[in-house]
């Protein structure tokens, strides 16, 4: 179906309905034509700052009438090109829909608008002794996190966004607004349409409200920092910790390159060797000691060079600040270079193999890249970098393709948490086979004009 983009009569109709909430200012167009990957820049035709669900519904109605593509946008922190608009598209910014609508401490849940960030929600519920555990690191919004099924450092204990969303309101292209899921903690009633929209990256509908699970704040926490001679040994330790039922809150890996960048970026003095960070939580400090001792013993058995323990809240916050700043620290270390962040996930028992394969591939290609990840989930990232347009990018692309192929052969996935967007469409059929055709049929059913975030997730038809 041919789209026309924003111009002429379409732009006039949007201005008549939304007034100053519609912007064509250069600064707004520039800000909405890119994401954190920095790999593409395509300015939209206009940016609409929606304030209510009615704004979203009316915007979709006008888009349908004038055949205008619509790309949902909020914090802009995606990494796979989900936010890059086709020329002339409407960038639908939901960040002003940022109210915490309802908190029910006794039910361990909150209802929010899609522009609420997870730190904002946590500030709102902390006084009730609760928190929302999914923490992708950036100041991501809950609507965006739901759209990509984001996870982060705490997913090993609490699950991804998908496991922590109970209910949704979703605006469809045909004008309907659906309420999906329920406030109950479980349900066996009907098709699970809620999960259809979680991870759909705005290609099937626009999320306008979410009810999410909350969890009790842990009474006691500590973290182990375990240094290893190589990434493979750290991965083996991670699988041993998970196999011992230690139930860590977080289980993270950063290689020597990542530690070097974080040290320079934050002025730290961490040992610049592959490091496994294990956070434990429990009802009391005493209850954690046996689990701490077990984790330390397992790490030393796997070849740990050194094990240190952080118990004070300020030490724990500093530790996780270093982990969350790794991406930005590495970018700061190589100014002027382009970056590509991969996101692969394998069954846990395959983690040492794929990480060793990655390190061997980097060495063979002569590439300087950093490996880090949520290894308790089998989820890891490789952050490649090179000068724009240099010959390194051909080698990076070839190695990236081999990494995905090996990941899929091991029973893994081409994306554990970043989503597909523009960058991973070419891998989707290799992972899902003929199911891609069914995905396309679902897309056509809900968005027959192909106006909702077109060109994302699904590969082009053969």
UniProtKB/TrEMBL annotation:
Q: Which residues cross the membrane?
A: none
Query: Has keyword Oxidoreductase?
Result: yes
User: Which superkingdom heads the taxonomic lineage of this protein's source?
Assistant: Bacteria
Top enzyme class: oxidoreductase
Q: Which UniProt keywords apply?
A: FAD, Flavoprotein, Oxidoreductase, Transit peptide
The residue ranges of the FAD-binding PCMH-type domain are 40-217
Q: Which cofactor does it need?
A: FAD
Q: Name one Pfam family in it.
A: FAD-oxidase_C
| Entry's EC annotation | 1.1.2.4
Which PANTHER family does the record match to this protein?
Answer: D-LACTATE DEHYDROGENASE, D-LACTATE DEHYDROGENASE, MITOCHONDRIAL-RELATED
Family membership, please give it: Belongs to the FAD-binding oxidoreductase/transferase type 4 family.
Protein name stated in the entry: D-lactate dehydrogenase (cytochrome)
Species of origin reads Deinococcus sedimenti
Lineage of this protein's species? Bacteria, Thermotogati, Deinococcota, Deinococci, Deinococcales
């Amino acid at each position: 179906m041919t789209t026309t983009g924003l111009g002429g009569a379409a732009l006039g109709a949007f201005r008549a309905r939304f007034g100053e909430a519609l912007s064509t200012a250069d600064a707004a167009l520039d800000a909405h034509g890119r994401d954190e990957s920095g790999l593409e820049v395509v300015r939209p035709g206009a940016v609409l700052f929606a304030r209510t669900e009615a704004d979203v519904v009316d915007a979709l109605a006008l888009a349908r009438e004038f055949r205008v593509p619509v790309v949902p946008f909020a914090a802009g922190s995606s990494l796979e090109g989900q936010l890059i608009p086709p020329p002339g598209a409407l960038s639908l910014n939901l960040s002003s829909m940022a109210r915490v609508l309802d908190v029910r401490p006794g039910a361990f849940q909150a209802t929010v608008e899609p522009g609420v960030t997870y730190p904002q929600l946590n500030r709102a519920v902390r006084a009730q002794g609760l928190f929302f555990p999914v923490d992708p690191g950036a100041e991501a919004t809950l609507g965006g996190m739901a759209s990509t099924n984001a996870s982060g450092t705490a997913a090993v204990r609490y699950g991804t966004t998908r496991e922590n969303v109970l209910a949704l309101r979703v605006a469809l292209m045909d004008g309907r607004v659906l309420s999906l899921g329920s406030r109950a903690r479980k349900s066996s009633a009907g098709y699970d349409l809620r999960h259809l929209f979680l991870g759909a990256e705005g290609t099937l509908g626009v999320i306008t409200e979410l009810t999410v699970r909350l969890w009790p704040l842990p009474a006691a926490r500590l973290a182990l920092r375990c240094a290893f001679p190589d990434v493979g040994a750290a991965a083996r330790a991670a699988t041993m910790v998970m196999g011992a039922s230690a139930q860590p809150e977080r289980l993270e890996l950063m290689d020597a390159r990542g530690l070097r960048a974080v040290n320079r970026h934050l002025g730290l003095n961490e040992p610049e060797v592959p490091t496994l960070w294990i956070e434990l939580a429990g009802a009391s400090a005493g209850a954690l000691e046996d689990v701490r001792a077990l984790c330390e013993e397992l790490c030393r058995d796997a070849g740990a060079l050194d094990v240190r323990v952080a118990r004070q809240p300020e030490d724990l916050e500093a530790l996780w600040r270093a982990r969350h700043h790794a991406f930005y620290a590495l970018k700061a270390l190589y100014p002027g270079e382009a970056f590509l962040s991969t996101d692969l996930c394998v069954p846990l028992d395959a983690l040492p193999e794929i990480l060793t394969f990655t390190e061997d591939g980097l060495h063979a290609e002569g590439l300087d890249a950093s490996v880090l990840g949520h290894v308790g989930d089998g989820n890891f990232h490789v952050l490649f970098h090179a000068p724009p347009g240099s010959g390194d990018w051909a080698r990076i692309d070839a190695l990236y393709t081999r990494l995905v192929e090996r990941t899929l052969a091991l029973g893994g996935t081409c994306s554990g948490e970043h989503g597909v967007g523009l960058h991973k469409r070419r891998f989707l059929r290799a992972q899902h086979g003929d199911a891609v055709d069914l995905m396309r049929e679902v897309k056509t059913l809900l968005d027959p004009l192909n106006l909702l975030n077109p060109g994302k997730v699904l590969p082009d038809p053969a």
